[in-house]
Amino acid sequence: MGLDFFSVLLVLGLVLNSLLLFCNGGLTSSFVRKVEKSIDMPLDSDVFRVPPGYNAPQQVHITQGDVEGKAVIVSWVTPEAKGSNTVLYWKENSSKKLRARGKYNTYKFYNYTSGYIHHCLIRNLEYDTKYYYEVGVGKTKRKFWFYTPPEVGPDVPYTFGLIGDLGQTFDSNMTLTHYENSPTKGQAVLFVGDISYADTYPNHDNNRWDTWGRFAERSTAYQPWIWTAGNHEMDFAPEIGETKPFKPFTHRYRTPYRASGSTEPFWYSIKRGPAHIIVLSSYSAYGKYTPQYTWLEEEFPKVNRTETPWLIVLVHSPWYNSYDYHFMEGETMRVMFESWFVKNKVDVVFAGHVHAYERSERISNIAYNVVNGNCSPVKDQSAPVYITIGDGGNIEGLANKMTEPQPKYSAFREASFGHAIFSIKNRTHAHYGWHRNQDGCAVQADTMWFHNRFWYPVDDSPSFDS
Ligand SMILES: *[C@@H]1O[C@H](CO)[C@@H](O)[C@H](O)[C@H]1NC(C)=O
Ligand SMILES: *[C@@H]1O[C@H](CO)[C@@H](O)[C@H](O)[C@H]1NC(C)=O
Ligand SMILES: *[C@@H]1O[C@H](CO)[C@@H](O)[C@H](O)[C@H]1NC(C)=O
Ligand SMILES: *[C@@H]1O[C@H](CO)[C@@H](O)[C@H](O)[C@H]1NC(C)=O
Ligand SMILES: *[C@@H]1O[C@H](CO)[C@@H](O)[C@H](O)[C@H]1NC(C)=O
Ligand SMILES: [Fe+2]
Prior knowledge:
By secondary structure, the protein is of the alpha+beta class. It has helices at residues 5-21, 170-181, 207-220, 247-252, 291-299, 331-343; strands at 27-28, 58-64, 72-78, 86-91, 98-101, 103-105, 108-109, 112-113, 116-122, 130-135, 142-147, 158-163, 188-191, 225-227, 268-272, 275-279, 310-315, 348-351, 357-360, 363-364, 378-379, 385-389, 410-414, 418-424, 429-436, 446-451. The strands form 6 sheets. An 8-stranded mixed β-sheet has the order 1-23-19-22-18-17-16-15. Strands 14-13-12-24-25-26 form a 6-stranded mixed β-sheet, covered by helices on one side. A 4-stranded antiparallel β-sheet has the order 2-3-9-6. Strand 2 (58-64) and strand 3 form a beta hairpin. The two termini are 41 Å apart. It binds 2-acetamido-2-deoxy-beta-D-glucopyranose (5 copies) and fe (ii) ion. One 2-acetamido-2-deoxy-beta-D-glucopyranose binds at residues 425-426, 428-429. One 2-acetamido-2-deoxy-beta-D-glucopyranose is lined by residues 304, 306-307.
């Protein structure tokens, strides 16, 4: 899809608007759309189709399996029987087929029993290489492929997609379709939490975890999705005897947390090409002395900006959010960690949770110490840009009520569904663009050139003066 006439008008409109509103702090987009209910796709939808054949593997998804990007975890579900837990894989054009064996697990949730959930770690892959892989046996063999990232290093370009709070509505399908058709091809997805929204059904109907897995397979089987835990992954339901938080999530989705010295799957780090990515958990303890706090304290000194210039953090609950929804929910974590983010010059923080879009200026709020009264965010060139991208399009619908006036630190906000692309060019520059679902795939409704905080810390959010 290209730029249609309507989209061009729209972009022009936004540009004019931004000029008009700059002196007033941030921009609240004037692009207002009819708010309709977001409806989950019915169970008989095309995207939920079960692959043909007895016990055929379904819900295939991959994620990074180590710190550097030379390993991949392949996961899938066989519904009827254990089946084979072998993955056959080979380099493009190579006749030498390799084999890796995984493990499977099952779980029960209230009166639901899962299929056989397989996880298989493939190691010692070559960088920057296309691999094919196959799961299943006989007539139900299914073949997919992925690309490994380039070797970790400062000047290898790499493009990440950003998706959050996706769910499985017609809007979710549109978000995924837009992401797939983006002219700037995302090579891996940084997913900021809230996957299936199965917990919005009676007894958290876990069949909706299965439908989500089948829906997303068209992307998750071909490029790694880097998982962040959201509140809809907790599935904490003592009223039906389900008291172990994150049970469906941990059985179905893997993260390479041990490789980065973490003790739980919910916080960990990876390197991928030019980026060091830290994933945090809003729903695990992070107070002083807790495992997550201690891990993060030890993680920051390991970041080597000569090797990975770009420092990216993913977390579900945003620290800076000027919508009425989930207002200040991220505050306690901000109080704990924000000074570390500034000290270590994090480039960007991506969050979800709020079902809308927002981008901040570079600001921090770390001067306050309870007695000194210094409690307003100030412009800070060592601080990250905070982006809320919880606009995947789930069943809970859009968050369209905003706090007024728009805080000065908020650069751009709009209640629309969409996704974003963070495209790292080299050690100094990364191009960022947010795409709303109503536009043609090439249209970027909000853009920013990121200047790396370590290598090129010149002001890249000049519209805010505190
Ligand atoms: C594999 O073969 C195809 C067709 O011959 C060719 O276009 C492609 O470049 C080859 N890829 C590699 C990695 O050698
Ligand atoms: C689980 O319980 C619900 C509500 O009691 C019921 O509608 C559903 O059919 C049950 N499912 C199974 C697999 O027993
Ligand atoms: C979901 O999107 C795909 C790709 O655009 C399309 O083929 C499919 O029909 C859509 N399904 C639903 C239920 O909207
Ligand atoms: C950081 O990475 C560079 C490039 O790989 C390497 O030369 C240097 O020794 C590393 N620094 C530390 C402190 O490990
Ligand atoms: C880095 O990328 C930016 C944007 O593409 C470009 O303007 C700049 O010249 C590049 N820097 C180097 C050193 O190549
Ligand atoms: Fe959420």
